[in-house]
Structure formats: structure tokens, C-alpha cells
Design a protein that fits this description.
The chain is mostly beta strands and 241 residues long. It is built from 1 helix and 20 strands.
């Protein structure tokens, strides 16, 4: 599931993974520090994790609860004694951020992973009947592009990434009905910021990171979608709490 520890919330990455088990030393965990100074040391482990989308190894933190032998295991009688793997990735500043977390919860008496075992995690969302997809307009010539930008534009929100609040700027050439909506990464509507006629010119909106029920949304990727008549534009936004 999505990693969460106190106020630290992971940013899920939509991809599939495979965990392959072998002898201790086939890979090494990454040094990573959680709030309250809880440390995942760099140590040899008996598994590695591959991103199936990129076909590359990923970095991970390993919090070994039940011992210190580098083997990923679980306690079938008490899940609180089970080891924890935290999936990691690098952001644009080359800093480590958490994404997913994994622990085992086997029935009492069942065995732990052994060399030769593998586990495939399917986290990339498949298409579903009620999905909604939004595409930016593709222009065919520089003249068309200049004309489109003059009539209708959506600027990148600022700041981005943001924490508490972000500003959204758009421009229309005449009196038009404009709808500005926030969607999450799964295509679900989070909140409608505007749905009314506006005058020609540049306009500004603010989003405080809350949904239509006025509750704080989780950290992650969101989309601001602006629609007016036959025109539609979308920008990505990153919320980090």
C-alpha cells in the first residue's frame, strides 16, 4: 500500500514490480531516515526489486524488525513483528522519496520466502469502463499555435510542487463559460474550482489542496483541467505535504 508514517506520506508510482529472492547479499538496502530518527541502514539483504516498466532495479529501505540477518520475513502470529520494505525513488533534485510499502502477513505456520521465490506486484492501473482521459490540443503549425495561445491559455500553477496552496492562471479572449476542475491521478474528480462565464482577460484561481468535501487531499500528482467551449487544456501539479 501507499507508504505512510506519521506525517510522511509516500508518492505512489504507477508501475509494476517484481521482487526476487536469493541469498543474503544479492542486493543492498539504501540508508533512509524516517521521522523520529528511525533509520534503515545500508545492509546486504536476500532480495532485490525491479521496476517492470523500466526493467531497472529500484532503491529501497529495509526495516528489519524480527532480527538482523538481512532476510525479509514475517511473523504469522503478530504482524507488528514483520519486516517492512519501503520502495524509494529519486525526485528532480536527486533526493530520495518514498512510494510504496510492503510487509508480509502470512497465516500462522506458513513459511517465509526462500531463494528462488518471486513476487510480482501489479500497481499499474488498468483501463476501466468509467475512466476519463484528457488530452491537450495538438496544433499543426506555428501560426495555429500562436493563434490558440492568444485566445486561450493555461499557465503552469505556481508554486509547483506545492504544500498548502497553489495559484492557477488562465487567459480567455472573450466572454466564455469556463470550467476549471482538479482530478487525481486515477482520473477521479477532486474539486471544481470554477464553472461560470468569465470576461476576456487573465484570471487567477487558488487551490488549497482540499477536495469538494473540504478535506485535505493526500500528497501526489494531480491535474488541473480547463475547458471552455471546444478548447481544453491540462497541467500537472504535484502536492507534497
Amino acid at each position: 500500500k501507499q507508504f505512510q508514517f506519521l506525517d510522511l506520506l509516500g508518492i505512489p508510482e504507477l508501475t509494476d514490480y517484481v521482487i526476487e529472492f536469493g541469498n543474503v547479499g544479492i542486493d543492498t538496502s539504501t540508508y533512509f531516515v524516517l521521522p523520529l530518527n528511525i533509520v534503515s541502514p545500508e545492509k546486504p539483504v536476500n532480495f532485490n526489486i525491479k521496476n517492470l516498466k523500466t526493467n531497472k532495479r529500484i532503491e529501497f529501505a529495509f526495516f528489519e524488525i524480527d532480527g538482523n540477518n538481512g532476510e525479509f520475513s514475517a511473523d504469522g502470529d503478530n504482524i507488528n513483528n514483520s519486516d517492512l520494505i519501503v520502495f524509494l525513488k529519486r525526485d528532480e533534485n536527486d533526493s530520495l522519496i518514498s512510494t510504496w510499502q510492503l510487509l508480509l502477513n502470512p497465516s500462522s505456520g506458513k513459511r517465509n520466502p526462500v531463494p528462488g521465490d518471486s513476487l510480482i506486484l501489479k500497481l499499474f492501473k488498468p483501463f476501466q469502463n468509467n475512466d476519463q482521459f484528457y488530452f491537450e490540443t495538438v496544433v499543426t503549425s506555428l501560426g495555429d499555435k500562436d493563434n490558440l495561445i492568444e485566445k486561450f491559455s493555461l499557465s503552469q500553477n505556481y508554486p509547483n510542487p506545492f504544500n498548502m496552496e497553489t495559484k492557477i492562471q488562465f487567459k480567455v479572449s472573450g466572454i466564455n463559460n469556463v470550467e476549471v476542475t482538479i482530478y487525481d491521478v486515477l482520473g477521479k474528480k477532486v474539486k471544481t474550482l470554477l464553472n461560470q462565464k468569465v470576461a476576456a482577460g487573465t484570471h487567477f484561481l487558488k487551490w488549497n489542496g482540499r477536495n469538494k468535501n473540504n478535506k485535505d487531499v493526500a500528497s501526489g500528482l494531480y491535474f488541473v483541467h480547463l475547458k471552455s467551449g471546444s478548447f481544453a487544456l491540462t497541467k500537472k501539479m504535484l502536492m507534497i505535504r
